[in-house]
Amino acid sequence: MREANLGAAEDRRRTRLVDRQFQLGLAVRLLLVLTILFAVGLLLAFAPSYYVLATKNDLKSLEPAAAEFLVLHKRLLPAALLSLAGIFLYAIFFSHRIAGPLYRINAILRALIDDRDPPVVKFRDDDYFQPTAALLKELVEKLRASRRTPAPRSGGNLPSGDAT
Question: Of 22, 26, 17, which is closest to residue 3 (Cα–Cα)?
Answer without folding.
Answer: 22
